[in-house]
Amino acid sequence: MQANNNKLVSVVIPIFNEYEGVPFLVDSLNEFFGQHTDLNAEVIFVNDGSRDNTVERLSEMKHVTYKAKVISFSRNFGSHAALRAGIANASGEYICFNYADLQDPLELIIRMKALMEDGHDIIWAQRESTKVSWGEKMFSKFYAYLMKKFAFKNFPEKGFDIVMFNKKVAAEVNRNVEANSSIFLQILGMGFRQTNITYKKRERKTGVSKWTLSKKIKLFIDSFVAFSYAPIRFVTIVGIIFFFVGVLWTGYIIVRKFVFQDLAAGWPALMSILMIGFGITNISLGIIAEYLWRTLDASRKRQVFIIDEIKELNKP
């Protein structure tokens, strides 16, 4: 049992323009791991193309209670690419994520590690509640509903940002580094022995959220195009519906024209049909084009991330 307690835990933290928040982040990490001296940990900071002096400030700080290194990208590749790079360079038996604002408490590491030692392969930390705007809350609920309906039946209603998994899962992630995809859904879909815990998300202490509307929209598209056939099935179903409606509408016009002879031609009706028809056609072509583009992107086998430098920080 003692050997299990000493297993190395790798904590991957993506950072992007976090200059102001670095002192709070490092002080919190030093305090937490200083209080849990039996926890053998390494922290992997992944610099996702920061344009400020985040890395310089991070290098100047004292990391005294844990091993630490920073991986710098050649440019901004996104948080999911940063998490993948952290996994690829992690040394721990267990690997988990956290974020520079520490809205997700570090104590989750202790709770998840205990469950991992009980024989689980993947532990999800599901947030109980968050203080977000009405629009963000509705977007999250709609996203979760669609994911449960069309992709993963076990997708949590309030989502997840934190997960811990073992080297077996990490090996599968490294074996299939997917572009334009969600690393969380990739792990969720692997199966293995999974369980979850719940926690309350904290208020942000420093900085502002990098989770912009454009990133949310991209995640929404990535999730369904990469993990569900629902969009292409939607195109097929809509096409069938419009075909039968068109047949019925044609029959109706013929009957009214030759039996009742009271149907007057009208440009408004014609324009409405054309607008709806072309609208559905364009939506359908857009969805199909999205699949084709992703097929082309995958065939190019371009790197999901490019590492510029890996720097060991001062060790304890």
Q: Can you walk through the features of this model?
A:
- It is built from eleven helices and eight strands.
- It is elongated, with a radius of gyration of 25 Å.
- β1, α2 and β2 form a beta-alpha-beta unit.
- The chain has two domains: 218 residues, Spore Coat Polysaccharide Biosynthesis Protein SpsA, Chain A, CATH 3.90.550.10; 71 residues.
- It has an eight-stranded mixed beta sheet with strand order 7-5-6-4-1-2-3-8, sandwiched between helices.
- The chain is an alpha/beta fold.
- The mean pLDDT is 81.
- α10 runs antiparallel to α11.
- 49% of the residues lie in helices and 16% in strands.
- The relative contact order is 0.14.
- The chain starts with a helix and ends with a strand.
